[in-house]
Here is the input.
Amino acid sequence: MDDLPFELSDKRLDGNRAEAEFVDAVLHRKPNTVVMKSSTDQDRNGHFDFLINNYRVDVKARKSMSVLNKDFQKYCVLELQDVYGKRGWLYGDADYIAFEISHFFIVCPRMELVEYVENNISDEFVVDPNAAIKKKYTRFGGNDIITVVPWDEIQTKNCFAVRKFNYDYDRDRT
Here is the structure.
C-alpha cells in the first residue's frame, strides 16, 4: 500500500477501519452471525465487502466532500459510476449498503436506494460539489459520477441502525 498516492492510501485505510468497526458491531449484537470477507474480485467488481448470513453488504466510511465536511450526518454520498467509468457501488451486487455515521451505521437495502435515485435525482450535471444535492457531479477530468442526498429522505425506507461496539459516547458530548 506504500506505493499508493497519500490521499488514496488514507481513504483505503479509512474504509478498512469502517469495515472492521461494522463487523465488530454486528458480532457484538449477534455473536453467532456468519461473516465472510468478500474476495478481491467481489469487492472490486461486485461492490460488496462481506457476506453476512448470506447477505452481501458493502460498508461505506464517512465521506469528506465540501458539502459534507460539517454535515456528513445530514447528507449521504451515492456512487452511480466509479472512477474507471464502470457501474458504481450503487449498481453493484450488494444486498445492503452500510453507511458509517459517527457512532453507528445506517444499513439500507441497496435496491431501495436505486429506486430513490431513479425517481428523485436530476440528470443535470453540476461542477460544484456543493450543488450536487439531488444532482449528478463528477470531478474535473474524472469518470466517476456521484450524487448527494439528504438522509431524511432515504432513512424513511427500510433502513436500520447498527450501533458501533465500544464507541466512546462521551467523546461526542465534549
In short: The chain has one domain: 6-164. The two ends are 35 Å apart (CA to CA). Residues 6-164 form a domain with the Trna Endonuclease; Chain: A, domain 1 fold (CATH 3.40.1350).
